[in-house]
Fold these 4 entries.
Entry 1:
Amino acid sequence: MALRVWPEETLAPAEAQQRLRQAICHAIEPSLSGPVHDALDIGCSVGVGTLALAAWLDQRQAPARVSGLDLSAEMLAVATVRDTAGRIQAWHHAAAEATGLPSASFDLITLQFVCHELPQAPTRAVLAEAARLLRPGGVIALVDQDPDSAVIRRLPAPIATLLKSTEPYLEDYFRLDLPAALEQAGFIEVRREACDPRHRVLVARRALF
């Protein structure tokens, strides 16, 4: 995925992946007012973004407790194997909209390339659950395709049609005003920052009340 977002550059796979993950973390940083003690990566899949998040937080501060959550037991099994250093606090098997985790237990929650896989109603439910899980003033970061990206807007019609055929909820995602949905879920100070020519990071803070 990371290789395809810089089409005019020749990057090795590891280099492209590192560049993307660094850009994501760079976008999150301005919304963090202090150390992150507990972080949760929702929709973590095989843990690529979860491990990158943990590595960044290790460099930023004293080590944080980082966990991943996914609905797929198979993906979590792979994530556990990939976590060779045992860096992740826990790999939770649960639905993103009903995690069963304690309220107000995280300072940072990320959803990396998750929302475009969901219809609008489940996306709103996941945002509400994230607001419940975050401590007051905690930060949420949504990484996903940018509907306003020139790269996406210039896609030839056949390619766009093919993309939508493999991503059944992509149209729902493009039609959803995600910044407004964040505000409706109780988030404030919504920021948008591009992390590459095709993807954006939406960062917001949970209200203090």
Entry 2:
Amino acid sequence: MKRILMLGGSMAQVSAIKHAKKLGLEVILCDYLPDNPGQYYADRFYQVSTTDKEAILQVAIKERINGIVAYASDPAAPTAAYVGNKLGLPSNPYESVLTLCRKDLFRRFLKENGFNTPKSESFTGIGDALDFFHECGDKVIVKPVDSSGSKGVRIVDNDEDLIEAFEKALEIAREQIVAVEQVVDSKFKVVLAGDGFVYNGELKMYCPLNSHRNPKCNPLVPVGTSFPPVFSTESIAQVSSEIQRALSILGVRQGGINLDIIVDSFDRPYLIEIGPRNGGNLIPEQTRLITGIDMIDLTIKSAMGMSLGQIPEVRSSKIIASHVIHSRIDGILKGIEFSDYLQSKIIHKLIYKKNGDRVEKFNGANQALGIIMMEFSTVEEMFDTLERIYDRQILLVYSN
């Protein structure tokens, strides 16, 4: 039996573990949390941090693995590449994966290769960061260079908030480096997002999605995605071309990628993120519901060197959205209720929290309470529901 090493066993990663088992693979799991749910589906579990490259390499050697996957995990993606390169397994170049995962390295790469990119610098101390902020103008984004799930990311427009945001970002950043960059204003209320898949160095498929935000929490943190995209066919084609150019320069050969692109008022695409892994918030599951293409299947088979067959083009007339259930305040969860209307639209539901659990105001993907997928009859109905899902009591989250 062939063995696959999966890095990360959170609730959102369980679907990949279960699919690997379905393919007849023996699953070895690593996660630093002792109570992760993925261990109950894996064949063997090691409590090892997925960012500890050498420790993961030793597990891989001991288990004589045939493939490795960091499913929906930015921090673990460089580890997967490192181990894959060391053992000669299907993988992407470690330095390229690290460039995509580190915000400072990625911004430098974009600038050096002529891509549209916001003015950005990285700092270890607040003094130089303040000077750069004064050069930039009225507002900037502060972010740890190596965080995931939008943790520690914040827009600020004054010195006091910059100092506070910088200190919090520094607490999160493993490399103790914080990026400060100018804000690119989007042409739309949504960001162009979604997952793609790379095979033999080519972007074989890309399912474009609208990424929604909740300005009442953190305007930078995604609260769901929707299809079809509001962006023009020309914009999406231009974005796909720029993504392919970046992948070719970096030598990325295979696997899922997660994308965030801002299209400005002049229709110029800014590649905010090309994550070298499948998207979080169940985006692969949503992609399958929209297109019938199983990104989890492609990812695992690619990592194992298995045949993928013909990857179809993305074509769909479906109207499907996801929503990340979240709280606007800190407190104790008392309940989550869905209106009869919303219940009739839900086609998939995954709840992470239970009544009595502590919840926090939504500032990052790790604070999600769950996620739902919904199918609608019209695009107008979809956007109206998503924009007012809490205000119209379509979805209720009780916490105090």
Entry 3:
Amino acid sequence: MGGPPAVAIADDAELARAARRGSRTAFGRLYDRYARMVHGILLARVPHGEVDDLVQDVFLAALRQLSALRDDGAFGGWLAMIARNRAYDYHRRAREWTELPEDVRAQDRHTPDALAALEAIRALPEAYREPLLLRLVEGMTGDEIAERTGLTPASVRVNLHRGMKQLRQRLNSEAGA
């Protein structure tokens, strides 16, 4: 009863097998299906300005590592783990930081409210960050999140509910402060 529909698993498995045999079209369809999920996972863990480049890195790594995928039907969970590992790698690297000039910083297209909400979500426990960002930022449904990440629909529902409750509490306490 729990878990993604068999059709979606078979479809992912077929696409993964075709991609492993060298089909760029199949890999492109997997990219189209999973790019939002990867974006949301990375957005939960790295600075928003780095996310788009890291999404590309994740898919390049997946393409190179397709032969390591043991269960073609588990492509989504496997790709999610690559995304999480890529975020961890990002933070392990020593980076040089240069302060941006004031006029460049002023061009940031993100509103202060959006950035504050993103930071509030990032401060939540890890189990809630991903599902909330996949739902609120990437616009995925609970069933899509479950299907793409390999979580059960019940886990996604619980994590979204508890995460939203904690997010509301956090935002309300910040607004009152």
Entry 4:
Amino acid sequence: MIKQKKIKKDILPQFNKSLKNKKKTWDKDNQAWWDWYVTLADNSNSKINDALLDLPEPPKIKHSSKVNLKQLLSVPYTLTKHDIETFQKNGFIKLKNIFTPDVIQILRNEILSLLMKTFKNYNVNKKNRFLSLEMMWLENKIIKEFVLSSRIAKICADLLSVKKIRLYHDNALVKESGCGRTPWHYDDHHFPLATNDVITVWIPAQAVPIEMGPLTFAKPLEVYKFVKDIEFNEFDTSYDKKINDIFKNEQVSIVEEPFELGEVSFHHNLSFHTAPENKTNQSRIVLANTYFADGARVIKNPTMISGDWKKFIPETKPGEIVSSDLNPICWPVIN
């Protein structure tokens, strides 16, 4: 088990106490949550108004329809002992060649299709927004293969050193051209799960150069202790600014690197991360899936920062074990 597993949820972030006292819960949809959340990022030093980098559309792979997707997403990926130790020390790891270019093209095509169905004039009238789609696996067979992939789930289980992994939810995270920063945070804020065996898989549907705003990590994992007592502010950018200032003062190592095509990152729920603005003419399209160790319970006091969590964990009350049909065991494979 990862070292931070036994830390109690109710003593981790100070903001949990402040929000708990307010007894607030989120009462809108997930897209509205993201529209609100990105306003909490400090963009005072942003250069987003500079000329956007003109990138070509990612090349289309011929005959991608003939790819045996299910088989490719079931082939085991061999992690080394060093990989696991790196993840458990730093709270994240980036692994190359998780997917082939044709597999990524299939994923990209499906997400683009869903975006155009969900957001009117997606390709014509981009508004510098952070767009989100979730629970796609329930209606889209191709997305389902990616979300329930045993290749991915086994990596997650091995990195966390747990035997069984369940799905929390999938998310298409789309940072449109010109969209600003994602605020500093760790995912423990967002997932109402009474465990620290939680991991998110960040799968870019194209290569992500620095100018496009790749996921950026603070390391090692324990840096969250520097900022765990900062009170979360739901109204302005002060939380993001304070974290950034403390990381600078403590000379925390920040890893901001591009993602190659087929490269995927895995990060722990206590791993602090952010993402720069998208300074290109293309949307940064990502599939982000979150998994957790079987046996976890819902925390006793979910707050607005957990968003529409009842959509992801239906028919489960605070304090109960999560085992709904929408949270299937992804590893080991149950035939």
